[in-house]
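Shipment paperwork, digital attachment
Item: protein structure file
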Amino acid sequence: MDRDERHDRSERAERLTQYLTELQERIDPRSLELLMRLLRELSTSPAVRGGTYELGMGPEEKELFTPALQAELLVLFGLLTSQDERVVVDLGDSPHAKGMKVLVPQDRAQDPDFLHRHKQRVAAEAEQREADRREVEGIARASGMEP
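Attachment content:
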């Protein structure tokens, strides 16, 4: 790792630390604990490389995971993984992206073509996950197991 990379990481760490300090004052401890757990989970997921990822949460956690908390998670994830300024954008009401928020470069947040391509990618990934799920269930049934 060269000097510039260390400097970039140091700056990101400082911004993340500052944001977390401010966040601790704004949200309740249970929500903060959930955010930190999800951030750890996300940081090792395909989302790090630009993919989508479905978070694992129980019913109580899902209740805590409000749209505002979702946006906070995206901001934290952006601070952790990106050197560029990012903003949270709602992808709207397309079937596979209903209520989905994403983190995009600030200069692309108002670009309808970019957002449309993003929605298409999300839809394609969701369709692939569904096809994979059906295939696994079929294999389980053929093997005499309950899916």
